[in-house]
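Long-time lurker. I teach an intro course on protein structure, and each term I like to show students one example going from raw sequence to a predicted 3D structure in token notation. This year I'd like something fresh instead of my usual example. Would anyone be willing to generate the tokens for the chain below so I can use it in lecture? Attribution to the forum is fine with me.
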Amino acid sequence: MDVPGKRVRADAQRNVDALLTAAAEVFATSGVDAPVRQITAKAGVGAGTLYRHFPQRSDLIAAVYRHEVDACADAAPALAAEHDPLEALTRWLWRFTGFIGTKHGLSDALHSGDPAYAGLPAYFQQRFVPVLRDLLDRAAAAGEIRADVDPYDLLRATANLTRPSQDDEGYTRRMVGLLIDGLRYGARR
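-- Reply from a regular --
Happy to contribute to a lecture. Here you go:
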């Protein structure tokens, strides 16, 4: 596995990025137990490259999870810059439901007791709570939503709206809309 803080050659980083992207796509359609050859074929690399960077399947799963958490969290500032506060919040929650909805089998893996996953729940909170707090504060300051919303509570509520067995994106969007309507109750206009 790559050592944190160590510079990685550009070609090695491209391979890691390709593996993370391919694994995320394969995990979304086939689950985290998908065959390694499916991931390496999609990434255009050999199995040796995969195992050099991710010696255990759990290393790959954890890296994909972190990569996806980062991408979702990093979308918040761009949405805040492009949209009014309530629209940015709504769009980010939609993005978050997409993140949750594509994690087939990840919940079971995270609760498997494997030490490779021990830090992931804290990572989830460290990355998502501050960006959601910022989006909530902006929407509350604009008078669009109530000001007493706990970001972690909202993350949990939104995640509960998204079940992997529900493939109806329309349902999830309607539920996020209802959640946003609830946040409007008591807003100072």
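Some talking points for your students: The first helix runs from residue 10 to 30. The chain has a mean pLDDT of 88.
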